[in-house]
């Protein structure tokens, strides 16, 4: 990955988790993190600011993580999305995948292992997204030149 920081939009209604992610995730990589407490604030930011990945809690009062993801996908935004939750349910993991989440990461366990896993999945999904974007751009240029 390039030396520039990965821009992360983090959504969690709990202040402790917002500060933990902002403090701990950068020990694993070069991150610029904006952390908000609600889906409404996150969706507003996504309309005006570029991010490389969204990391969202699931269980929040006004809009859960999958509802946020659904709003993002329905707007046509395919930004990488990781559901970062303390809830371990197969049905929720499957629903996250079906809604378009790239990964489902559990918050529970040894923090160094949790954040190492989260870091690895962020890099993996951002690289995949950038590759897909580059291929799409390349194909558009090929099509444009073949028409000429």
H-E order: EHEHEHEHEH
Largest β-sheet summary? 5 strands, parallel
Distance linking N and C termini: 35 Å
Specify the overall morphology: globular
Task: Write a short abstract of this structure.
This protein is an alpha/beta fold.
Features:
5-stranded parallel β-sheet, alpha/beta, 5 helices, 148 residues, 52% helix, single chain, 17% strand, globular
What does this structure look like?
By secondary structure, this protein is of the alpha/beta class. The protein has 5 helices and 5 strands. The chain has helices at residues 15-24, 39-48, 65-74, 90-99, 111-147, and strands at residues 6-11, 31-36, 53-56, 81-85, 103-106. It has a 5-stranded parallel sheet with strand order 2-1-3-4-5, sandwiched between helices. β1 (6-11), α1 (15-24) and β2 form a beta-alpha-beta unit. α2 packs parallel to α3. It is globular, with a radius of gyration of 16 Å.
SSE blueprint and pairings:
Layout: E1 6-11, H1 15-24, E2 31-36, H2 39-48, E3 53-56, H3 65-74, E4 81-85, H4 90-99, E5 103-106, H5 111-147
Helix pairs in contact: 2-3
């Amino acid at each position: 990955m390039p030396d520039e920081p990965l821009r992360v939009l983090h959504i969690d209604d709990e202040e402790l988790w917002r500060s933990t992610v902002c403090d701990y995730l950068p020990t694993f990589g070069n991150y610029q993190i904006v952390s908000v407490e609600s889906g409404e604030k996150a969706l507003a930011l996504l309309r005006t600011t570029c991010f490389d990945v969204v990391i969202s809690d699931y269980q929040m009062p006004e809009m859960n993580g999958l509802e946020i993801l659904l709003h993002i996908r329905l707007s046509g935004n395919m930004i990488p999305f990781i559901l970062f939750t303390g809830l371990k349910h197969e049905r929720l993991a499957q629903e996250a995948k079906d809604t378009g989440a790239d990964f489902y990461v559990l918050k529970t366990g040894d923090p160094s292992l949790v954040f190492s896993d989260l870091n690895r999945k962020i890099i993996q999904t951002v690289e995949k997204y950038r590759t897909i974007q580059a291929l799409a751009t390349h194909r558009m240029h090929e099509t444009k030149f073949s028409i000429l």
